[in-house]
User: What shape does this take?
Amino acid sequence: MNLIKPKNNARYLRRIYLKEVVPVSDLSKQGGRTFFPLRPDPHSLTYYREREQTEMIPGDFEVSGCESSEELEKVLAELWASQGYDELVPLARTTARLADMLREKDAENEEVSPFIYVMF
Assistant: This one.
C-alpha cells in the first residue's frame, strides 16, 4: 500500500490546502455558496424532494472508475462544471495528482492473499 509519508508530503498537502482549497472556499462564501452547510437553511420550507426515478435498475449499482489520473481530472472538471461549481474546476488537476500519490501500488509477488480462495 502506498500511504502518504507524513514527513515528505505534509508540506505539499498543507500548501495545496492553503493556496488552492481555502481560496476556492473563500470565493464560494463571497458568492453566498457553501458546500457543507453547518446548519439548516431557515428560509427552506422543506428538504423533501420528489424522486424522478422511483425504481432501481442494475446500472444504479455499478460504479465505474477512472483508468488514469488524466481521466479523473477530466471527469471531475466536467462534473463540477455541469453542477455549476466552476470555481472547483481548477482543483481537478490537483485532486488527480493527489489520487496518484495515494493510489495503492500492486504488490508483485507470488504469495496469494489469505482472503482469496485458491481453486487450483
